[in-house]
Specification:
The structure is a homotetramer. Chain A has about 500 residues and is of the alpha+beta class. The first copy, chain A, has 2 domains: about 5-275, Glutamine Phosphoribosylpyrophosphate, subunit 1, domain 1 (4-Layer Sandwich); about 280-490, Rossmann fold. Helix content of chain A is about 30%, strand content about 25%. Chain A is built from 19 helices and 24 strands. Chain A has an 8-stranded antiparallel β-sheet with strand order 3-4-2-5-1-11-10-12. In chain A, strands 6-7-8-9-13-14 form a 6-stranded antiparallel β-sheet. In chain A, β13 (about 255-260) and β14 (about 265-270) form a beta hairpin. In chain A, α10 packs across α17 (about 460-470). Chain A is globular, with a radius of gyration of 24 Å. Chain A starts with a strand and ends with a helix.
Amino acid sequence: MCGVFGICGRLDAPGAGRSLSAAWLAYLGLFALQHRGQESAGIAVSAWNPPARAVGENEGERIRNRFARFRDVTVGGGILLRKEMGLVAEVFDRETLDQLPGSAAIGHVRYSTTGSSRRENAQPLLGITSYGPVAVAHNGNFVNASSLRRRLLSQGATFQTTTDTELVLALVSQSAAERLPEAVAQALQAVRGAYALVVLGEEASGQPVLIGCRDPHGLRPLVLGSRDDAYVLASETTALAAVGAAPVTELEPGQAAIITPAGVRIEDWFPPRRRAFCVFEYIYLARPDAELEGQSVHGVRQAIGRQLALEAPVAADVVIPAPDSGTSAALGYAQGSGIPFDLGLVKNRYVGRTFIQPDQADRELGVRIKLNPVSAVLAGKRVVVVDDSIVRGTTSRKTVALLREAGAREVHLVIASPPYRYPCFYGVDTTDEEKLIARKHSVEEIKELVGADSLHFLSLSGLIKAVRGVAAEEEKPEDAGLCTACFSGCYPTELTDEVRPAKDELERG
Amino acid sequence: MCGVFGICGRLDAPGAGRSLSAAWLAYLGLFALQHRGQESAGIAVSAWNPPARAVGENEGERIRNRFARFRDVTVGGGILLRKEMGLVAEVFDRETLDQLPGSAAIGHVRYSTTGSSRRENAQPLLGITSYGPVAVAHNGNFVNASSLRRRLLSQGATFQTTTDTELVLALVSQSAAERLPEAVAQALQAVRGAYALVVLGEEASGQPVLIGCRDPHGLRPLVLGSRDDAYVLASETTALAAVGAAPVTELEPGQAAIITPAGVRIEDWFPPRRRAFCVFEYIYLARPDAELEGQSVHGVRQAIGRQLALEAPVAADVVIPAPDSGTSAALGYAQGSGIPFDLGLVKNRYVGRTFIQPDQADRELGVRIKLNPVSAVLAGKRVVVVDDSIVRGTTSRKTVALLREAGAREVHLVIASPPYRYPCFYGVDTTDEEKLIARKHSVEEIKELVGADSLHFLSLSGLIKAVRGVAAEEEKPEDAGLCTACFSGCYPTELTDEVRPAKDELERG
Amino acid sequence: MCGVFGICGRLDAPGAGRSLSAAWLAYLGLFALQHRGQESAGIAVSAWNPPARAVGENEGERIRNRFARFRDVTVGGGILLRKEMGLVAEVFDRETLDQLPGSAAIGHVRYSTTGSSRRENAQPLLGITSYGPVAVAHNGNFVNASSLRRRLLSQGATFQTTTDTELVLALVSQSAAERLPEAVAQALQAVRGAYALVVLGEEASGQPVLIGCRDPHGLRPLVLGSRDDAYVLASETTALAAVGAAPVTELEPGQAAIITPAGVRIEDWFPPRRRAFCVFEYIYLARPDAELEGQSVHGVRQAIGRQLALEAPVAADVVIPAPDSGTSAALGYAQGSGIPFDLGLVKNRYVGRTFIQPDQADRELGVRIKLNPVSAVLAGKRVVVVDDSIVRGTTSRKTVALLREAGAREVHLVIASPPYRYPCFYGVDTTDEEKLIARKHSVEEIKELVGADSLHFLSLSGLIKAVRGVAAEEEKPEDAGLCTACFSGCYPTELTDEVRPAKDELERG
Amino acid sequence: MCGVFGICGRLDAPGAGRSLSAAWLAYLGLFALQHRGQESAGIAVSAWNPPARAVGENEGERIRNRFARFRDVTVGGGILLRKEMGLVAEVFDRETLDQLPGSAAIGHVRYSTTGSSRRENAQPLLGITSYGPVAVAHNGNFVNASSLRRRLLSQGATFQTTTDTELVLALVSQSAAERLPEAVAQALQAVRGAYALVVLGEEASGQPVLIGCRDPHGLRPLVLGSRDDAYVLASETTALAAVGAAPVTELEPGQAAIITPAGVRIEDWFPPRRRAFCVFEYIYLARPDAELEGQSVHGVRQAIGRQLALEAPVAADVVIPAPDSGTSAALGYAQGSGIPFDLGLVKNRYVGRTFIQPDQADRELGVRIKLNPVSAVLAGKRVVVVDDSIVRGTTSRKTVALLREAGAREVHLVIASPPYRYPCFYGVDTTDEEKLIARKHSVEEIKELVGADSLHFLSLSGLIKAVRGVAAEEEKPEDAGLCTACFSGCYPTELTDEVRPAKDELERG
């Protein structure tokens, strides 16, 4: 549950009339990925054209003063980095973006999965390696991070963070390969797990090199686009559109793209393994206007809603979405069932990360602020409310209570996915299985716990059918090329490391 | 286009188990009013129970040190104020709320109409008057502000801001009435225009007194609610719900509510004039889950959509809302026309006040960040897009272009209000009539300017019918109790002051 | 214990090659006055040349947008103000100074005497009056502030602060005079007490006018200087030097200077009363390199030290100053006595306003950080330590203890002023007479309390002799033209208002 | 030109009644060392007693949340770090100190010598090594940093900074020693140059271990003190006094102190080499109240002044110090010559790092703000001004001009050290020899350049005599146990690395 972005190329193409720096484009791209992580944000750039020498400056001073006025960024060789806790809009302003010059950048928005939620664990990470300065940003999770880190420490490495991502820097610096791209390829031989990775470095000439690659199972998405004489990498197509880039291709599992100002080169770094694209991207993670594997996310969610109308018909007066993630499926359910669609809950757009929950007794007021029932739609009605999933169950309980309080006669909860029973070790923060309500409780029990009149989950086969089409109905998940581990318990990778890697694994050492 | 809030009473009612201070409740209430103004926010409290004397402090020190550790608020006698530019969530945090003790508060969110957009013009305003410290917050606009200010200056008043609201403080201090409520009543005799006003003061005993009142035409809304032993005033019912208060009544035009810890008293301060409630509150200003004059705003907007389906039938494949304000009307249009409703445009929830527009050539990218078309819904389709109103026309032009770019075959623009032709002098920032596109252009010309295949506005009579019901169809606006000046040019008040009061009027002096 | 500064004129004189704005010069001037007040700092400018109209802006927008990008200043008509708690260096940076354009400014550094220590009481104060926007800054204290404020409130005035200074704005706005300078003169007829005042306004033409004046007794200093085509007002000559201005004259008691871009005009506003210049300016307040009444402050202090050597001979090995204010007098004492001068205490230059005292048990460590004994100078020696005055006695006690701990065999405390027995109502924060150690204790008792081997104060006649020369030895203080009230109890003004005006007087109302 | 501090032990000794944390004591200690570096400040602590488990927290959450509320510090295992650009008072406040719990800490104030002046280069540095988290702070300079770094990179190390100090972390992690102290000893075998180093780590038990050591030549000072059951390390004795610690011993060249809660152990890590204590510590770097090698710094500087009076007698009326560093020597010169000592220049105590120089034409005003002549002392006089040293000559030129402007008849410049001709590679920022005025110019030429009537430097033998006493007069510097390289060009270490290591060396890679 992170988003990555990368751009490299000639941004000042003659006649293009477009003059934004790579950092500005990364800023726009990260806005389009913000839904994938709201904890921290960061951008690293390769500033390989240093500012001209000031009059009276000697060479030594020139190098030392090179980025002297850039007080808000971290400098490692020619790579400059800014990362902070907070939203993209909070981390960057005109002043900080102007401290990130150059035509190659990577960016990251984070929702922590490995490593605690602290500034030092925010990404991109930057280090000076035997290949010069290297920055790296990562969506996913390494399942063998703990043993790998112990090995590297015993070999004399030092670390600054508790992220699995930092292992890439150490592995790269240890590599004997001649150039950075090969060093990254070598480094990734040692890691197991899920990753869509972007790496920014500098060649011996000082020119930037941007590398993107996907793990051999293709668990996390990564798309390639182009914009004039530059190439762009991003977690979702939405970020390509945000910078005015046209989609070129989705990277295949195990593939890498190496981008320099001279162009792009696609390489196969890993032999093909079972394709296992995260189905939760379709259900919740991706934005409805994104396309994954060539399909509209909104379209898939509508199909899920229609499938639900078949699997779970309910006698009701109105279908409403749980805002905002249930909207597409609710429209599908309304279409499939013929029950009218309406807006029964309004979300307060101004309640964000910084809203302060009142203490104690008045905490219930906090809920009223975030979600507001439209009584005219609900009063006296039998209501179907469609939500994307139930993980812990707390939100569903509050939603049902709110609807009843606003006068709903019956509340039927329809969920656009199967029960979430197994922890995800590939980048969604559900490693603590104790907290998964469906791990311990039957559907009937959950219904009671959340207080609904009825509760319906989508079937796994129904999900696969909605994603892959009718022909896939009887397919096993493995054959559908999807990772459904959170619903089925069937993990595509061996869980080699301490069986159950935990988010806090690296904090202990 | 501002929101006001007030609360006063016994918040520590025995057995109530609710312990929030008045400032905390105002904070929650302002969140529910944030859509009415995002420019600045402020809360003033009456802290009439000063902190106990510290050991070794003499009386003089005690008074001087009373609020010494409250560095983030302004102190005027026993009233403490915090106001800053920005959203409620940006202006207040736990630390600042804890510097606003006490059980009586007023709050304000501002979208500037009179007075430039600066911190000093943010509200509430606070001054020490002949009645002790007084704070005031205001939704609306005085149309005789300029002449009133000149008169007061010539009488020796001094001012700190360029708002019309500050006139209330000066008029109050000049009053010869015995107590604050009567002084406010006297002061308001001198002003003409639109106002929903909340005033916070202290009685001779040190106890707080909260006063709310509406102008004689009732142009701006103000509702009264109750919560245990406290009473609440707010621009919309949504803010009552936010603090767990039950609605008591809407203040009538010309009415005032005087609230002390002992209870509430309703008074008629002005003889009845023609009722003229702002119809634009129904169309755009209020939140869909609010109730105005006893009616659901969402319901009225749906009725408007259905009326539009009658007035402006279009042959199309899909109806989509312009997010977010067109949603209710679009649902009504889809219901009325039988054309399927879908989501064709997704709004980026993270693009707010602090998003930085790229410069120049790449500005177009900014639009792509804010609004994202869902191609699967639009490609090859004849699209009806429903929006609430067209003021300047720039947004509509961009929306139409975006839809075409995403593959829409035809784009039909349906507007849930009549053409906006006349400036509003009552609190909506459209005083510069040069910028109203419908002032200078015919519907046909506007259609060309925004690039739509067809363009349809709601009729004035259709609007009245949707708001007041079928019986009202043939009514004159005046008889319907609505102000429709922005559409009809028929203003409920004389425009006594320099004929055309302007937002910058008071900046000149 | 405040400092004031003012400048007005043509700063862009051809050929002068000097291009600083008035605010920049005020910034430099306030640095030279910082020792007079470290609590808050502020600068107000008259920006009567508004920025040129931007393309496409209409007149209304132009006025409203005039200072739109100046987010860190307060705007009142054409006068812009920035004031904050803290040192000059903390309140101003390049960005804020650049938001204060124009060629007329006043500035202030504050140590609170009336009004609590809060941002809203920082100066200059700014209000819009019947003469347009007016800013005012004040060194001194009005002794009839309380009754004056009650009168103005009953006449309908409103106030924003609890300072006596704000009364000037209200009195000015009430004046019937034709132009601002006369209005200020009228206003000051109503006030009693001590003041060196600078007032900044705008004439009907929009041109700035700067007014400076001293109270009829001349209690507080105010000097006039010139710099190219501009005139400068300041509390001390040091601030003239800081901006490259040459001294012109000291304003006489009751005199005013009216400065416009066209030049300066000196007027006598009050009939002559008994001259009573604050003798504590010589002893402590002014900087040693300043000149007061034509005399070097360092020179007067050396003379005081020599006088002490006559009055209070001590058998000792070394004379050391209490840093930093005792240095000049200690040099004089060493010269007069023949005992060698040395540095026995070093002050830590980095311990300032923001140093955090450790709590409780370890508080003693705080003292060790601030003041450091040089053991090599002190060990085994009979030490004379010279300090400027003893007010509460706490510092002296700590100093003596520190010297003994460092090995001093005897510690003789010699004080460069008489016992401080009476509260000052003219701008030094000693209104709480309970805390004056010499009010309640004899010299012998104080000696015991501070732990010295001997303690010697200067005689009042010795003080007058050192300040006015040998001829003055037998003069009565009144005849010497000095206010010695804090030593003699002989106050130059009637204390008309509640007999004992207190710093917190205005907080109560 | 940096200061280091370390403390470890039992701070809560029963009966001691002293409860400050190690970070608070480090804060106080750094205040006493602030004169050694004003660029950045930092403190690292070992928080080996993690906060207790909150109710309902599982073990994983507990570890991850351990320091969750400590938003202003960096976490590496159990070591917490805060470092920022700025003065100690700017970097730390009560809130940040409270985020640094525990009873072991190291601290640093920096004036950059290797590595550019940026936050990432501020110290202490913190990394997770094969010995767990380790923090390190350093006064001095490694002369073989560049080749060492190249070697470590080729072995697979990664770096985050461009300081030589970070090499220690990499060398430690590579060590095969069993425990941290031996690993540090092994690491230092690889480095050449000057260092007083403090290292903070955690033993396997989680208990803290603090290590301090001096290079084999003893170029930089490091003293050991004790306070109840804790031990303290600091660059100067002044910092011991600041935390209430008694001096125990100065570490000998090549010695190390290993401190745990159980006590201290002194070890000899290097065979004895030629002792070469930096003579510039006596002349300028150390505070006058410090003791170095058992001698009072103030006393040595007075002896230098007396020696100058012998070597460079001048016919003059008054001796004044260049504030503040010339004061002790000026007193000595006055004593030796019989010419009266006086204060001719007053330094503005409020002009610090944040003072903004006016641009261009008015820059000269900046000088007037910082330094103020006392005309009464100077006018018409023949003035001897005593300064500690001349490095670039720019300050001297301004001082002389200022004195003449204030009326001095003659200005004689007397310098308390020999001409500064050779760059220092051991921690004083004079590596750019092009800028050393005495490198290129004779004494006569310098006199002309600074505009003095006469100019006198101390002789090298006179300096040694003043430091070591009469018997040393004919000694060679080597025999006196001093490093005088900056005056004599005689460097105690081989300059093995690229002959002339430069401050910017590591920026290039």
